[in-house]
Amino acid sequence: MIFCTILMNAERAYTILDASPGLTPSQLKKKYYKKALLCHPDKQGDPEEFRQVQEAYEYLSQQKDPLPSLLESSMDYLSIDPSTLLSLYVLLMEFKELVPPILFTEIEKRMPPILVIHPTLADLVHQHVYLYTHGDKRYSIPMWHHELIYDEFIVLCRPEVTLDEHNNLTYEVHAKVQDVFQSGLWIDELQVRVEAKELRLAPFQLLEVQGTIPRIQEDIYSVSETGLILLQIYLS
Which parts of the sequence belong to the J domain (predicted)? Predict the structure, then answer.
């Protein structure tokens, strides 16, 4: 008779327990208990399957998961630099579906509370600030900034329109040829006027104009410099 022994490894152990990498010890134990109850010999389960479940749990319990330890050492370093930590968090959020949840958990443990603001186009065009009370302090937060770091919290501004890093905006406009060449083009949402002489008699054209959305400057409240607007104009 030939006996074949399948050596335990991490992939097989996770498969046996219906588990996945990144679980905490308590979560792994819950997976183990659930599987063990289903195949326990006292409940007329399969003894061999029960043995494999025990072996899988013991194997994973003894393994040193490199992710938490790596995060621990990395986060200890990153926590002294909130700006770097925030940049990492924002970058990872773009790939949220691909990043283990434990990574966000570890980063968030070391970050101040995050306030997410969703400015409208009107908020940006009219240079609005967001009034926010934290503890016994009241803050005026300029909503044209992408991220701001305060001592007690972090602000992420996620507007309803897409701006580039210099707060330039691309905007689509549809208008009637007759109306445009009679009185020019007034875009109320942007507070921008385009004179008829600046336009061509073409169904589609691009025109760059000065906007009112402030650029990001060292003085966070400064509105002395504003971004450009690239108008995509469709005439019919």
Answer: 12-79
